[in-house]
Amino acid sequence: MTLDPDICYRAVESRDARFDGRFFTAVLTTGVYCRPVCPARTPQQKNVRFYSCAAAAEQDGFRPCMRCRPETSPGTPAWAGTSATVARALRLISEGALDDGGVDDLAGRLGVTARHLRRLFDEHVGASPLAVARARRVHFAKTLLDGTGLPITEIALTSGFSSIRRFNAAFLDTFGQAPSQVRRTKRADAAHTRGILDLKLTYRPPMAWNATLGFLSARAIHGVEEVTEKEYRRAVSIDGASGIVTVAHSAADNSIRVRLPLSLSQHARVIADRVRRLFDLGADPAVINRSLHTDPMLATLVRTFPGLRVPGAWDPFETSVRVILGQQITVKAARTLATRIAEKYGTPLTGEPSARSFPGPDRLRRARLEILGVIGSRSKAIRRFASMVDDGKIRLDGSVELDELTGALEAMPGIGPWTSQAIAMRACGEPDAFPAADLGALHAAKRIDLSITNPKQLTARAEAWRPWRAYGLMHLWNSLSSEGEKQ
C-alpha cells in the first residue's frame, strides 16, 4: 500500500486520532515504531519511515513503542487495500489459519497459488502472510500480559504459539524484552483474582453503540443471547469449555470491553475475534461516510448516526439460519422460531441451566423443524443448508468471493437473492452485500425519496454507495421506527 510521507508526517505532528491504526511511524534513530497519536516528541521527518501495518514495520526490524503500545491501536481495515483476496486472507489469518497450517494451505482455501498470495501481500500490506500472523499472535499476547493474570505458558498457547520457546523468542524479537519483564503485575493479579479476563478492543470513532444494541436486541435468541440497555451477553461453548461472555462499551477511550470467565481463557483470542466481527470494530466510519454522504437520500441519516456499523455474526451458521427463518416474516416472528430451535436442539451450558449454545449444522441437518412451527419449505431449506455447511460444500469463513458465495447459496431450493445477500452481509461480513428486495429498505427509501418505488430502482441508486452498500442498507433499516418492519 502506498502512503504519502508528507500527509503521514503532518498527521503525526498533529497527533490526529483519525489516523490511528491507518499507518505506523518507524523512527530510524531509535529502531522503534509508533502510532500517529504517540505522545513522544515528534522526530524529524528525515528520520522516519511509514508503514501501513505493524507487521510490515516489524518485518523490517522495528520494535513496538512501549509508550503508545501499537498493539492496542484500532486494526487496519481489512478492505483498506484494493485486493479482495488479501481482505479474505487477513480475516482467515485473524482466525488462526496460519497457526497450524502454512501459506500453501491458506492460498488453497482462497483459490490462488502461494506465490500469488505472497505477491499480493507484498503489494497491499507490505509484509508477508507469515509476518502478519506472527504480529497478530505476539500483539494479542502482549494484551493478555498487560491485562490478565494468566500464566505465561497459557498466554503463549492462547495466542496461537505452539510452544513456550517459540513464544519467548517471538516476544523478545518483537519487543526487545522477555514476557516476564513487561508484565504489569498489580493490574494482572487484580483481574485474575476476580476470576475473569477483561479484554479491551479498540475501534475508530464514532460508534453508534445504542443503535447496534437495538439491532441485536430485536433479534436476540432467548437463552443464547441477552441484550440490556448497556450490554450484550452471550452463552459461549467452544471445544467443551463454556461460560457467559459480556460485551460493554467504553466511550471514554473508544473501546469495547469483553469480560469472560477463566473457563474460556484458552479461547480468548477466538472470542476477541468474534466480538470484533459481531460489532464491526474494523470499520472506518470516516471512509464509509464520505462515500455514503454524497447521496442526498443518505446524507441526513449519516449525519445523525455517523458511527453506524453493520452487525456481523458471532457464529456465521447461526446467523445464516436466522436469516433463512426471516424470509417473508417479521423480525419478531423469526426470533421466536430461532428461540424454539435453540431450546429444542441447542446444548445447555454447564452450570448455566437457562443458557444454551445454538445448534450446529450437524444437529440441524436432520432436525424436524416443522414441529416447531417452521413451514415445510423453509424447514427443508434449513436442513439442506445445514447439510451443505456440514459437508464443507458451503463455506462461511470468508474465503469465498461474494459472487461465488451467493451463487452457491442461490443454487439451493428455498434460497433466493435476498437471503443470499443477507447471509453474505451479516454472516460473512461482506461490506458491499446488498439484499435489494428487502421490504424494509424499500419502505425506508420510499419515505425519503418518492421516486424509488421498486427494488430495481433502489439497486440502481445504491450503485453510488459501492463498496459500502451494506452500510447504506443499515442506515435505511435504522431509520425505520417500528421493530415489526421487515428487515
Overview in brief:
The chain is an alpha+beta fold and about 475 residues long. It contains 24 helices and eleven strands.
Protein described:
The radius of gyration is 23 Å and the shape is globular. The strands form three sheets. The protein has a five-stranded antiparallel sheet with strand order 5-9-8-7-6. It has 487 residues and is α+β, with helices and mostly antiparallel strands. A hairpin with a 4-residue loop joins strand 8 and strand 9. Among the domains are: 68 residues, DNA Methylphosphotriester Repair Domain (3-Layer(aba) Sandwich); 103 residues, Arc Repressor Mutant, subunit A (Orthogonal Bundle); 78 residues, DNA-3-methyladenine glycosylase AlkA, N-terminal domain (TATA-Binding Protein); 87 residues, Endonuclease Iii, domain 2, CATH 1.10.1670. The C terminus is likely disordered. It is built from 24 helices and eleven strands.
CATH architecture of the domain at 84-186: Orthogonal Bundle
Alpha-carbon distance between the termini? 37 Å
As a percent range, the share of strand residues is 5-15%
Strand order of the largest sheet: 5-9-8-7-6
Name of the CATH first level of the domain at 84-186: Mainly Alpha
Structural class: alpha+beta
Quote the average pLDDT: 90
Helix percentage: 40-55%
**Uncertain stretches of 5 or more adjacent residues:** 482-487
Overall geometry comes to globular
User: Treating each run of at least 4 consecutive H or I residues as one helix, how many helices?
Assistant: 24
Task: State the fourth-level CATH superfamily of the domain at 84-186.
Answer: Homeodomain-like
Q: Which value, in Å, is the CA radius of gyration?
A: 23 Å
At CATH level 3, the topology of the domain at 84-186 is: Arc Repressor Mutant, subunit A
The major beta sheet can be summarized as: 5 strands, antiparallel
Total strand segments: 11
